[in-house]
């Protein structure tokens, strides 16, 4: 069981082992109208082409960033088509279209990258010593997800049913004891649309949130996310892109983690198990990219209440995938 207040902040890279695209890969897919021909039942082909053209020309890594500026703008195909479809509406349909087809249950048990099955490691830490289902509810872990997918929810639902031998309803109740906040919405609750079922694409798209850039995190999900950050004693970012807007919305620009705790990055200097610490997986990141992330987390290298110290335990971690990184820093230690 995880007893220390523990938080995972999850980005697109965390779902890659389970068959999902990175944020950049999703962006590239959404720039190609050939990938979105399945949406012609909802909108005219010319509007899809215009959407892809504009998104590509905007040169943004993130679809969230693009839609935060143009969500309410109607798409003009230039063909005399008086469209009632906005960039936000089509963007959400496109996201749902590309992600729902990746909802393959087998990939959760046997990931496409079997060497990075971090969910199995998380599950083993949550149920160490053959934890009873009653005690499972006492796990002190919460998750802030920037992803639309339901990978974590579906994985927990499945393993709870199999490990404890309970039916879907009881597993659902146990799973929901683990708070997961999707700050940009999700592809419907599992209660409303089972994993892998396409059903009505428009209903899934409606559950995706587009937040205008002018709003800096005052909606209820980001408000809750900031509350959870204050609650946590351990935080780890996994598969996270550290987009400026997202960091700002989490409140980590005005209150960098070094001011919040003065904790040790990667747990390099933690005096005992359970010590306060934080980390971020940085698979394939360059030294310059790592330095930039550390600068953001540390409020521009200002060290008012505690240094970010990382020399001992951080060497070579850019070669570690999520599973390897979590094990390397012994993040779930008690």
End-to-end gap: 9 Å
Task: Kindly name the structural category.
Answer: alpha/beta
Are there runs of 5+ residues with pLDDT below 50, and where? 301-312
- The number of distinct structural domains comes to 2
What is the gyration radius calculated from CA atoms? 20 Å
Order of helices and strands: EHHHHHHHEHHEHHEHHEEHH
Shape field: globular
Helix content: 25-40%
Strand order of the largest sheet: 3-2-1-4-6-5
Q: Kindly state the mean pLDDT as a whole number? A: 87
Strand residue percentage = 5-15%
Number of strands: 6
Report the biggest beta sheet as strand number plus sense, adding barrel if it closes: 6 strands, parallel
Number of helices: 15
How is the secondary structure organized here?
Elements: E1 6-10, H1 23-30, H2 45-58, H3 63-70, H4 87-100, H5 106-109, H6 118-126, H7 133-136, E2 141-145, H8 151-164, H9 168-175, E3 180-182, H10 201-206, H11 220-231, E4 234-238, H12 244-249, H13 257-260, E5 264-265, E6 277-280, H14 287-297, H15 322-328
Parallel strand pairs: 1-2, 1-4, 2-3, 4-6, 5-6
Helix pairs in contact: 8-9
Structure description:
There is one protein chain. By secondary structure, the protein is an alpha/beta fold. The chain has helices at 23-30, 45-58, 63-70, 87-100, 106-109, 118-126, 133-136, 151-164, 168-175, 201-206, 220-231, 244-249, 257-260, 287-297, 322-328; strands at 6-10, 141-145, 180-182, 234-238, 264-265, 277-280. The radius of gyration is 20 Å and the shape is globular. It is 39% helix and 7% strand. The chain contains 15 helices and 6 strands. Strands 3-2-1-4-6-5 form a 6-stranded parallel β-sheet, sandwiched between helices. It has 2 domains: 6-20 and 108-328; 23-100.
């Amino acid at each position: 069981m995880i007893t220390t207040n523990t938080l995972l902040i999850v980005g697109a890279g965390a779902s890659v082992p389970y068959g999902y695209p990175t944020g950049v890969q999703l962006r590239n897919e959404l720039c190609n109208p050939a990938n979105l021909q399945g949406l012609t039942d909802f909108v005219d082909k010319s509007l899809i082409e215009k959407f892809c053209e504009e998104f590509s020309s905007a040169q943004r890594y993130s679809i969230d960033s693009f839609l935060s500026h143009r969500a309410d703008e109607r798409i003009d195909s230039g063909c005399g088509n008086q469209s009632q479809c906005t960039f936000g509406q089509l963007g959400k349909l496109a996201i749902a279209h590309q992600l729902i087809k990746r909802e393959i249950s087998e990939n959760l048990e046997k990931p496409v990258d079997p060497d990075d099955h971090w969910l199995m490691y998380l599950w083993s830490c949550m149920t160490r010593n053959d934890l009873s289902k009653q005690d499972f509810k006492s796990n002190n872990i919460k998750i802030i997800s920037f992803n639309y997918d339901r990978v974590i929810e579906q994985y927990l639902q499945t393993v709870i049913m199999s490990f404890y031998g309970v039916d879907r309803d009881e597993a659902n109740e146990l799973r929901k004891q683990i708070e997961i906040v999707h700050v940009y919405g999700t592809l419907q609750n599992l209660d409303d649309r089972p994993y892998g079922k396409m059903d009505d694409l428009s209903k899934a798209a409606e559950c995706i949130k587009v937040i205008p850039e002018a709003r800096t995190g005052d909606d209820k999900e980001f408000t809750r996310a900031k509350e959870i950050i204050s609650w946590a004693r351990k935080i780890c970012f996994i598969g996270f892109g550290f987009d400026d807007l997202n960091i700002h919305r989490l409140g980590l620009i005005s209150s960098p983690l070094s001011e919040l705790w003065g904790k040790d990055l990667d747990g390099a200097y933690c005096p005992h198990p359970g010590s306060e610490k934080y980390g971020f997986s940085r698979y394939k990141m360059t030294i310059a990219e790592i330095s930039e992330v550390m600068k953001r987390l540390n409020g521009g290298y200002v060290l008012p209440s505690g240094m970010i110290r990382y020399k001992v335990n951080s060497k070579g971690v850019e070669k570690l995938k999520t599973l390897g990184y979590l094990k390397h820093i012994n993040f779930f230690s008690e």
